[in-house]
């Protein structure tokens, strides 16, 4: 099944890191070594998803070490999502999801791989590699965002158990966390070799730009992954589903509404980045450039990956 690609057109061009194929081979090897792709069908799914290409799209100027760390993190997220979230019975069980979250928090906070789960071991490895590259502020920032992501999965499981989508405002707020996009934005300066201070990271102006970029990425994913989610998810939890069930829209109407919301958030991002660029701070200029890479790169990868199998229109 294919989904006709709606007219989502950010005014930014996408690039690809020249060492993407090198990162792809390294990520496939890393995932196999940690047991994430022990079953052949999982290795095939990882190849079809091509997380290294997503990393290459969203950080086209990173160091090879940064690109590979980002690629491995994308692989972890996609495989973890398939194992424990959308396509798993655990993803509809808040108690079981909480137990998995405890395992992952042990790896995240204390480096405890434990005997429970291959994903915990892989996460502990990622954190150790991050710690070797990052400042204490950057390490803490990433762990805080991953913690929020893990807790948001319990919310997702509760919503699936209830078989009732959230109200729109609740969905927008929680989707940011359960998408894991904030975890990726927390890595922007690490993988690209610069440092954004905590004061700037927490400033209202940077938060406005980052939130807009996150929403654009999340909602674009909700639209382009629709066919995949309808086919493989236990219970559909996405922006089109929320608009359809809460506002009485059919699928075509919901998709048009999603596209309009994405276009509006692109305008919000363009407005939000203006004071950051006008500040003359080269760190803020670099951060904005990488936010734009995330917006355009995620869309380009979504057209290319075998995970969603979208077609252009």
From TrEMBL:
Native organism: Actinospica durhamensis
GO molecular function, a single term: metal ion binding
E.C. number(s) listed in UniProt: 4.2.3.-
Keyword Magnesium: yes
Entry cofactors: Mg(2+)
Record PANTHER family: BETA-PINACENE SYNTHASE-RELATED, TERPENE SYNTHASE
Pfam families according to UniProt: Terpene_syn_C_2
UniProt record similarity statement: Belongs to the terpene synthase family.
Entry keywords, A to Z: Lyase, Magnesium, Metal-binding
The protein's name: Terpene synthase
